[in-house]
## 1
Amino acid sequence: MGVGLPTEHGQCTRDHIPKENSSIAAVSSSSSVSGYLDDCTCDVETIDKFNNYRLFPRLQKLLESDYFRYYKVNLKKPCPFWSDINQCGRRDCAVKPCHSDEVPDGIKSASYKYSEEANLIEECEQAERLGAVDESLSEETQKAVLQWTKHDDSSDSFCEVDDIQSPDAEYVDLLLNPERYTGYKGPDAWRIWSVIYEENCFKPQTIQRPLNPLASGQGKSKENTFYSWLEGLCVEKRAFYRLISGLHASINVHLSARYLLQDTWLEKKWGHNVTEFQQRFDGILTEGEGPRRLKNLYFLYLIELRALSKVLPFFERPDFQLFTGNKVQDAENKVLLLEILHEIKSFPLHFDENSFFAGDKNEAHKLKEDFRLHFRNISRIMDCVGCFKCRLWGKLQTQGLGTALKILFSEKLIANMPESGPSYEFQLTRQEIVSLFNAFGRISTSVRELENFRHLLQDVH
């Protein structure tokens, strides 16, 4: 293994993967990344043009709609790994939940139907499923069996999902609680990412990450050792690391783009902090590490883009509704959603995930299970984040990426969905849908912000 992934537009072999010091992958001191991405044949310029000028505006409009702006989350779950969490006491770390009357009734009812006739059909279908269970069991036990089946159906989930029925789970308006710099940093924040990388990215402890703030004695030899190890991994494990690194990079782009520039009793001013961005991504200041992080961000973009193209049939089904209770707006938003997904489908250089887990069946099954369990563990680590706003967006984005992975590995189930009626083999909850699109919206915003920073850096120089 360890070769590049084939794509629909040709074979990406090791010979086609540009080296870090080649001209096609050259990275300037202004942190602009160019050329082709490792492990695929798509180039950065193609992604920038597609995202910034064809996709971004419509996607932002969709995410401002009622269906996608309200996310239910439990921010009070205890950290399952350690108890000494220092809660961020800054005002900017706080999350303002919604009052019950602020959330549309259609969202709170968890209904996707508009007519009494449709609801009656759904009730009949549920009764039919219940009737398929052994009738000698009590009604209570029959319902429990269906719950066990539901649990089994979630066994392919890549995320530890909140119990949204918990009294501690609350709706949050994402537009009123934007992801931005909160001042949450230092050892507590570093520990979160350190545990993610050191214990969940298939990395031996003897191999140290470059620029790891919790490790001493960083040096050139250790950087070379790290990337020699990474390139020697099978493509699945290497992709796993790149996804996590890309998510980390995307979050850092957001924090640099919405930085607290002014904080007085009169007003707070948020905006682009070029110095902060350079410290995180400049090729010289980060000894070449920053540009690698940005390339991983683009890799993550392609993965989530591919998942959205795959899941189009699920949303095209006439039974699916973006239900909030406002029939006119819901219909308009579904049209917009399908326009976006068809635009994504037209992207010319989609990532091809078919090489994942394509070897020996037993080894592939074990590797996929390891892949899934490692990612579920990362989703649990988000409950250890001491800043509530950071925890909110961390949980949402990990759930969104987990949903994207679930889609990519459910291709056959999606292909076999009935054209109408309920889809029992493949389902997405509203939570998964909202996190999927908002997480991709965050990645899309990062790609857009990179262009903004390029312009700002040109003005500086």
## 2
Amino acid sequence: MLQNTGKLAGRTLFITGASRGIGKAIALKAAKDGANVVIAAKTAQAHPKLPGTIYTAAEEIEAAGGKALPCVVDVRNEQQISEAVENAVKTFGGIDILINNASAINLTGTLDTPMKKVDLMMNINARGTYLTSKLCIPYLKKSKNGHILNLSPPLNMNPIWFKNHCAYTMAKYGMSMCVLGMAEEFKGEIAVNALWPKTAIHTAAMDMLGGSDVSSQCRKPDIMADAAYAIFSKPKSFTGNFVIDEEFLKEQGIRDFDVYAVDPGPACPAENDQHCHPLLPDFFLDEEPEALAKKMQDYRANPKFQAGKEQASVATEGPVAETFKAIEGALNADVVKSTGGIYQFELSGDHPGTWYIDLKNESGSIGYGSFPGKADVLMSMSSEDFVKMFAGKMKPTMAFMSGKLKIKGDMSLAIKLEKLMTQLKAKL
């Protein structure tokens, strides 16, 4: 891991969304140098599903050796940001570094994304980043080495990153366009860069997207904190860069990346290594989609999910039918009570068709064709991968994160389905 050098001692960092996750990890890294940290986040009271508040984060920062100023800030609210900036300057004498970390995510297609969600992502990701930067820049320009760092991806125009979650990509790329524009606008005055992880980072948001079991395929937020720290050590002439954490840290001499893994172990060096756990590649960093899929296949993730229209032929026998028979045999009132969802599967490939699993009514049931009502979750994939998924030979999170598994509807119920798959693994 990257060692602290003391270079951030006495410098003031303004971090949005710093009560947990990557934002807090960056704060704690800076605190070890004796930095001042403004925790600009919404969570003043504990969230029932998400850990940490601005006050608990402040305690950790001060315990690590820094000084903390917790501020209740919703980056959609100009007055709250302005007051936090004024408090930061009054308390610490200025602002040296701004980290635009606050973000909202909703991975649904155009027709399935309510405008309320679109507005939320646009206002937090793009507008919030622009607004916070605008209010901090006058003070950053006074710093000897002012930096803005947006946690946003490189501007990859491959349509694959738009087609499944267009609104999220637009909102996230808005943060990246702030880097592109402001780096040039304030060249020589402030360094403006973006930082993005090469692999998925284990945060509360990742647990909500992929379930708790996804952690073994993630790295800890520490890798992003180390990369951010290295960026802040650069002069303000280091600007306009879209930094990828692993690649940048390699340039700083870091060679051991296993220390950043949530579950350290072999990183799938060979196809016949049955004990390794592949790290999930993060969004927006594809080579070619086909090359990425091939690489994941080599790691036995086998992301072959392909959405397709239901074909007319009915497969009453074969692996899909056998899988649904096994699922039916595992259903009971307890499973229904713990799940409470209706799942519809649109399968393509050698055994196409539409099936459903009712885990909401009585003792549960399965059926061929569309559910006679409204399904809570719609999943589209190939029939071959459906069988592999329920047999435990393919991780749903890997397929979903790579964009190969299409999911529409209630994501929390989609995550619950993984528990049923675990129960069925022995039978299939």
